[in-house]
Write a structure and sequence with these properties.
The protein is mainly β. The chain has a single domain, classed as Lipocalin (Beta Barrel), CATH 2.40.128.110. It has three helices and twelve strands; from the N terminus they run H-E-E-E-E-E-E-H-E-E-E-E-E-H-E. It has helices spanning 15-19, 83-90, 171-174, and strands at 24-28, 34-41, 45-51, 54-60, 66-74, 78-79, 102-107, 111-112, 118-126, 129-140, 150-159, 175-189. It has an eight-stranded antiparallel beta barrel with strand order 1-4-5-7-9-10-11-12. It starts with 14 loop residues before the first helix and ends with a strand.
Length: 191
């Protein structure tokens, strides 16, 4: 897993730990969660970035597994640690953050996959364009000793054209089509 923020990659939680999650709503911790992405540039290297502001909620069903949820990502919080590039990503060439300030992710169901993985068919909205995006998720062990938090890792790849991201030429030729997403969501009980 690409962890450009320095977060540790821990082994997925076992089915027993997963089943121990109480039913109900779990809040996505904005302070600790990370939404990362990478896109190939000129076919030579990856440009990596993060979104710094995210809110959301994950519903845990009676079986202790995710049943659905939503995320709201502040499009203007995109950061590749290069201010001119970040400014360009906020423009109409890419995210159109002024006209569409939020990237929305909605999940109505989660399907168990072989092993501990989960298939997460998500509806992603960028620039007002909705597309279905298949994601894969798995649990990480809780990082807090009190057990009042857990970590959900979600990853997937989508063609940027399906999200309505079609920059002008020659930028369109320079930026790769596949966007690789990598989210680390720290969840806490929503009280």
């Amino acid at each position: 897993m690409d962890m450009s923020s320095g977060t540790r990659d821990e082994p997925p939680a076992t089915g027993t730990e997963l089943g121990a999650l109480p039913q109900g709503a779990w809040r996505v911790s904005s302070e600790r969660s990370r939404i990362g992405f990478k896109v190939r540039k000129m076919g030579l290297y990856f440009v990596k970035g993060t979104f710094r502001r995210v809110t959301g909620s994950i519903a845990i069903g009676a079986d202790g597994r995710p049943a659905g949820g939503w995320l709201r990502i502040d499009a203007s919080s995109v950061s590749t640690r290069m201010p001119p590039r970040d400014w360009h990503l906020r423009t109409r060439d890419f995210l159109a953050a002024r006209e569409h300030p939020e990237i929305r992710v909605a999940v109505e169901r989660v399907e168990q996959a072989p092993g501990e993985a989960m298939h997460v068919p998500a509806l992603v909205t960028v620039r007002g364009v909705e597309t279905r995006m298949p994601l894969i998720a798995h649990w990480h062990a809780s990082e807090r000793a009190d057990g009042n938090a857990t970590v959900l890792h979600v990853a997937g790849t989508v063609d940027r054209r399906e999200l309505g991201v079609r920059p002008r030429r020659p930028v369109d030729w320079i930026v790769g089509r596949d966007i690789h997403l990598d989210a680390v969501l720290h969840l806490e009980p929503d009280r």
